[in-house]
Amino acid sequence: MAKDKSSAFRARLLSVAGNSLTLEVLDGKVSSADELLFCSSSQTRKVLSLREYDGHILAEVSSAVEVQIGEIVAGATQRPECVDQIEAEILWLSAQDMLPGRSYSLVCAGQLVDATVTKLKYKVEEASAKHIAANSIAHGETFIGNLSLSRKIVFDPISTGLKTSQFELRNGDTEVLAKGEIRHSLRRASNVYWQTLAIDKAARSKLKHQTPKMIWLTGLSASGKSTIANIVEKKLLVMGRHAYLLDGDNVRHGLNKDLGFTAADRVENIRRIAETSKLMLDAGLIVITSFISPFRDERRMARSLFEEGEFIEVHIDASLAVCEERDPKGLYKKVRQGALSNFTGFDSPYDIPENPEIKIDTEAICAEDAAARIIDYLKE
Ligand code: ADP
């Protein structure tokens, strides 16, 4: 790790042709006595010659390198860190609250990865610098949190003063949501390895003679999700398929009994359900989930955990008026009496799915036909 800014050299690889490189210098100065380290691929090359051109450095190195454009290049004796778990201090700039568990894009020295705040440690009160417990972060607030990244990035901790310690969180790759600084890597990141198992998803699903699938039902309360999900599970059983229905009630009574209905808790609710389902698919099962899952971002996050073609989003649709009329659990009545808040469709939003694999209008077809449509889709 670089100890102070003056001695460390950090650059981004802009282009490479054989043993000729173009580097964008981020920090420090490269000298012809240096050996260059290509941080992601861990290759090193001696510098043969250097010259400046158009604000960049053109370098000839001892032999050709096979590296990715954008790779971070450092002096071989000043190796930066490379992990996918970090602790950071973040200034939140977006008008929309930061919610742990939600997926954001992180950009650090040109490296773009998906990032999730896995633990919001505390926010820092501006005037007093006091640490305050929080479960979401509003515009203008600064917080300390742990982040999990979709793949490893090369970086330096903020104590080095290097630009490779700074990052932005963005919405996609455009709108800047936050500015952050990496405090340090989380040690567990380098200590935990996913054990390579000889028995995998393919082997387990072959044993069951089925293809694991994630059937994700989304829709307003009383739109018909549970009713239809139950019929789908029965039909699969009759077909000799091993399915499992994860339902709002069975999950909220156990795994998620610590969660309520605030936006932050809803995000965490969906994250746990998606991760649980992923394990079940890995076991070879066909999983059906029946949750309102009102936020598009969380449904996208859930989808991103699965392989191409595995995730089947089913919009169980009915108008709010019809759902209120059905009201099988008397929840809408409670909302009208003012006894229930944060209720989807009233004081909590429902983002209509834009591109679901299946859309079912339960005002137009009965539950039995709706389930049959889902089964037909699976058969295809
Ligand atoms: P959700 O799980 O979406 O909250 P439920 O399945 O618990 O909804 O409740 C839906 C209610 O609507 C049930 O009482 C069901 O009998 C009724 N219903 C009426 N028409 C349909 C339909 N086409 N599909 C599913 N449910 C329907």
Provide a concise account of the structure shown:
By secondary structure, the chain is of the alpha+beta class. 23% of the residues lie in helices and 35% in strands. The N and C termini lie far apart (54 Å).
Query: Largest beta sheet: what is the strand line-up?
Result: 1-2-5-4-3-6
Strand content: 35-45%
User: How many domains, in number, for the residues?
Assistant: 3
Any ligands, ions or cofactors bound here, and which?
adenosine-5'-diphosphate
Shape estimate: globular
**CATH homologous superfamily assignment of the largest domain:** P-loop containing nucleotide triphosphate hydrolases
In CATH's first tier, which class of the largest domain applies? Answer: Alpha Beta
Total strand segments: 18
CATH architecture of the largest domain: 3-Layer(aba) Sandwich
Order of helices and strands: EEEEEEEEEEEEEHHEHEHHEHEHHEH
Helix share bin: 10-25%
Mean pLDDT: 92
Low-pLDDT sequence parts:
1-6
CATH topology of the largest domain: Rossmann fold
Oligomeric assembly: single chain
The major sheet is characterized as: 6 strands, antiparallel, barrel
- For the record, give the distance between the C-alpha atoms at the N and C termini, rounded to a whole number: 54 Å
The SS-based structural class is alpha+beta
Tally of separate helices: 9
